[in-house]
Amino acid sequence: MTGLAWKPVETGDEFCGIRNLAFDAGENISYNVFYAVMGLYVNAGSANFVVTQDHVNNRPAYHVVGTGSSNPSYDWIFKVRDRYETFIDTASMQPLKFIRDINEGGFKKYENVTFNNQTNTAVTTNGVFKVPNCVQDVMSSIYYARNIDFSKYNPGDKIPFTMFLDNEVYNLYIKYMGKETVKTRYGKFRAIKFKPLLVKGTMFEGGEKMTVWVSDDMNHIPLRIESPIVVGSVKVDMMQYRNLRYPLSSMISFR
After folding, report:
1. Residue-level pLDDT at 177
2. What's residue 41's pLDDT?
3. Is residue 1 part of a domain?
4. Does residue 204 sit in helix, strand or coil?
5. Cα Rg for the chain, rounded, in angstroms?
6. Which of 141, 189, 228, 239 could bridge to 136 as Cys pair (CB 3.0-4.6 Å)?
7. Full residue range of the structural domain in which residue 59 is found
8. CA 165 – CA 144 distance, rounded (Å)
9. Residues 193 and 200: beta-carbon distance below 8 Å
10. How many domains are there within the chain?
11. Which residues of the chain have pLDDT under 50?
């Protein structure tokens, strides 16, 4: 896998003290994945993210499980059966353990990472790797991003973070794009818009090609994601939610 590096103008240490104010155990959010076929979007898959309370080495942790799959009728185009897990320290919001078990278009991979935040190392089946302070994994970075105070930034600002994936450290960023109203399959929302810098993978292209809209309220839940993929493009819409930490006050209208 090739990383797309960007040298941050400030260290990620600024975000080491980030606190979770956006979500809580019990949160459950489901999405529909729409795939573009000849300019029309068809419902081709689904995804679900669940947060529970757990412990890792007697340390309280949020256990987040994200699953995604293509609908069986569209498996012939690009079959997806993904499961991601992260265990996030409730106090520091840093990952303690990460598990990835994916099948994307026939590419299968299993990854199990244990993070030691005292020694700044990540332990995998391939060895022990040095990582920077406050490094994130693929899943924890989503919940980390939900706790960013976007009011501190101007459109175009880049918010740096580091991520460990496939035994490598990547210097990445989230590019804040401002606020706008977005209409999804679920409803109409006031939203915060940003573009994450992606690492090129088996399904998503690298660079700033993905756009994310999150609710402009205290929850900051992802409402819509749009991105080109290796075979066309996808649009992901939030379709159901349970046990949000706060009311979804950003919703203007339902459907």
Report:
1. 96
2. 85
3. no
4. strand
5. 18
6. 141
7. 12-254
8. 16
9. no
10. 1
11. 1-12, 202
